[in-house]
Amino acid sequence: METGIRAVRKKYSKKGINMNIFKRDATLHDFKWENLGDIKEGRGDLGEDMPVLVYRLMQYTMLDVLTKDFGADKANEFFVRAGHLAGKEFAENNLDLKVDFHKFLANLQTALRDLKVGILRMEAFDPDTGNIVVTVGQDLDCSGLPITNETVCNYDEGFIAGILDSYTGKKYFVKEVDCWANGDRVCRFNGSVVD
Ligand SMILES: [Zn+2]
């Protein structure tokens, strides 16, 4: 059986889809969900999963480099912004945004568990203001980190805000108030509508 990029191109060209892969204007610098590629096809026997260690290695070395060049506040801001983009794209490409809120949250909970991001729970929701409190247990970004008395899940803050923005059409500000790195067992996020 034919494998690799040639087979993928053939598959898509049969459907009349121009993958644009060799065009000069194609770039990975503007994020698009499709640019994550055909992971199943490309990874072959190694498969779609990998150890959390590898994810954290990239995340925390990136944090180091950005902090040294831009300072801690700016580095955290970059992580929030990247997380927000991820949350928005994740919601729009993977979740049904038309179901009612409780169904949406249940689907999100299942998706995050299946992807091994963490165990999401809603602690509070005010339907009048839209304000929400969620916890994430066994969090991908921080569970098991040394206690440094800080909240470190800036990427998650953005990720959750991006998901809430996409579902509600409103703008959310999400702040982590408890974190494993702060001595808690779960991460707790307060979300509030800013406009
Ligand atoms: Zn955390």
Give a written overview of the molecule:
The chain is α+β, with helices and mostly antiparallel strands and 195 residues long. The chain folds into two domains: 4-46, no CATH class; 52-193, Muramoyl-pentapeptide Carboxypeptidase, domain 2 (2-Layer Sandwich), CATH 3.30.1380. The protein has six helices and four strands; from the N terminus they run H-H-H-H-H-E-E-H-E-E. Strands 1-2-4-3 form a four-stranded antiparallel beta sheet, with helices on one face. Strand 3 and strand 4 (186-193) form a beta hairpin. Residues 1-17 have low confidence and may be disordered. Bound molecules: zinc ion. Zinc ion (ZN) binds at residues 139, 142, 151-153, 176, 179-180, 187.
Find the CATH topology of the largest domain: Muramoyl-pentapeptide Carboxypeptidase, domain 2
Strand content: 5-15%
CATH superfamily of the largest domain: Trafficking protein particle complex subunit 3
Query: Helix proportion of residues, in percent?
Result: 40-55%
- Specify Rg, calculated over alpha carbons: 19 Å
How would you sum up the global shape?
globular
Q: Could you tell me how far the N terminus lies from the C terminus, measured between alpha carbons in angstroms?
A: 54 Å
Rounded mean pLDDT score:
90
Low-pLDDT segments = 1-17
Order of SSEs: HHHHHEEHEE
Write down the CATH class of the largest domain: Alpha Beta
How are the strands of the largest sheet arranged?
A: 1-2-4-3
Which small-molecule species are bound to the chains here?
zinc ion
* Number of helices, where a helix is a run of at least 4 consecutive DSSP H or I residues: 6
Give the tally of structural domains: 2
Largest sheet: 4 strands, antiparallel
